[in-house]
Specification:
single chain, alpha/beta, nine-stranded mixed sheet, 26% strand, binds 5-O-phosphono-beta-D-ribofuranosylamine
Amino acid sequence: MLRVAVLASGRGSNFAALLRAAEHADAGFGVVGLYSDRATAAALELAARSGLDHASLDPRAHADRVAFDHAFFARVRQIQPDLIVCAGYMRIISATALANLTVPMLNIHPSLLPRHRGLDTHARAIAAGDVEHGASVHVVTPELDAGPVLAQARVPIDTDDTPDSLAARVLEQEHRLLPACVGAIARGRLVLDGKTFRFDGVRLDQPLRLGADGQLHAGASA
Ligand code: GRF
């Protein structure tokens, strides 16, 4: 079983989606802990109710980003994860901490990267006149939201969409995309090998797409 540690700063709906997916007998992964930089994160309550290892560390109690990350990831390492997933973890992670990681770390971002890195992606996609938006799962690298993209879910933008209505539809897809990616890694279908990825043995040259069937597909055929 692939041991997955989740980092979250807030509501934790993607964390909840991973927990639900992990309950399936054939999931191949288990969520082993939840770690936060905010003591008030709802995700922590869910972790506690679920009997999972959890902790929050206060960034203000540390001298700087590197010192915080050192303490934070030392705590995460205690649970011995095979994979770390940022699911609404709103802190930039220092390059030092990333260089010291011995397991892959993924992030889910609410846009079709490389479009709309950073915050307020839904409003920015509407303002830009985009006809579609979506979510991406990518490998975390020192540059914010710029790591290699593993998979995406696409969502059409309606003419009457508001940032909130669009965000709600994207979030639904996030809840399918993230467990699909983690499950594909757990089952050995998706292999991260340094900077290259393989899906069913074939090297990926573009992100996988989440199909209407809830499965990941290579290429444009989904
Ligand atoms: C999600 O939209 C995620 O893509 C972004 O932050 C939000 C977190 O939502 N990085 P939740 O805490 O998982 O409900």
